[in-house]
Amino acid sequence: MQAWLCENPVGVEALQWKELPTPEPQANQVRVAIRAASLNFPDLLIVQNKYQHKPPLPFVPGSEYAGVIDAVGSDVRHLQVGQAVAAFGGTGGFATHACVDAHLVMPLPQGFAFDDAAAFILTYGTTHHALLDRAALKAGETVLVLGAAGGVGTAAIQIAKAADARVIAGASSDEKCALCREIGADASINYASENFRERLRELTGGKGPDVIYDPVGGDLAEPAFRSIAWRGRYLVVGFAQGNIPALPLNLPLLKGASIVGVFWGDFARREPKANAAALAELARWYAEGKVKPVIDRTLPMPQLREAYQRMGSRQVRGKLVMTN
Predict the structure, then answer these.
(1) 169, 187 Cβ separation under 8 angstroms
(2) Any signal peptide, and if so, which residues (predicted)?
(3) What global pTM score does this model have?
(4) Residue 111, class by beta-carbon neighbours within 10 Å (0-12 exposed, 13-18 middle, 19+ buried)?
(5) Do 30 and 71 form a contact (C-beta atoms < 8 A)?
(6) Integer distance in angstroms from the first to the last C-alpha of the chain?
(7) pLDDT average, residue stretch 242-260
(8) Closest by alpha carbon to 101, among 89, 83, 85?
(9) What are the chain's domains?
């Protein structure tokens, strides 16, 4: 097999495309011949030694991928060789093959494209858990999505619309705002050029959004929270801007609002049945055309550094996918 190997997590430049022994699956694992893998923000952090999970060295980055099972461990009964699957293994995806625990694998229904499947589990699993489980989003409520043109942002627009909510998309350029409206957002705010709070007040008739979906953090967090509706829910999804904000605790008090943490990875580990049910619902929605990953571009796996560079320059709209 071939893989991008991280032997020293000092950044993307230290990754090496190498030939390695093809691994054999352990008793509870399957081996996947990878057709496509997507690039997520944690994949950037993990090779910079900045992510909360620090795998033992050396490791192959790439948290999320899709392909065909070509070997099955002795204890695995529900999966078989030749089956198309997607997987969220945390690492291992930027390669031609990977072994992954069988419970982290999602069988793909017929017609589920590998490129889409590779860009699906993390962003859509996170967002379904955030909006429908943690925020208990109801039909007719208004959701503000920050960083709305990114991977989780575009997923949030689609899932909120599938739940019959109204969506306001916040993004940093007119082009990104246009993309958000194209995939279903009811309105958009360019927070690089518009008065963010004033525009949000205008779009919600002064009420504010019921749910704020925030994968960005940084200096957007406080003005967004100051605009939240009574009994609003502020979803802490991530910190793509880099800075972890500190909100004054009088704000949730005055708004009767909640600050709600979203940690999908631990949810999937602690509540596997609930996570499996959510992924099954998402697969149905995909088949019905309600959700579909927005793919910025696909690149051959050996061009991973180019993909990382594009992600680091904040140019990406949706997801980047690497293919074998």
Answers:
(1) yes
(2) none
(3) 0.89
(4) exposed
(5) yes
(6) 11
(7) 92
(8) 89
(9) 2-120+293-323 (3.90.180.10), 123-264 (3.40.50.720)
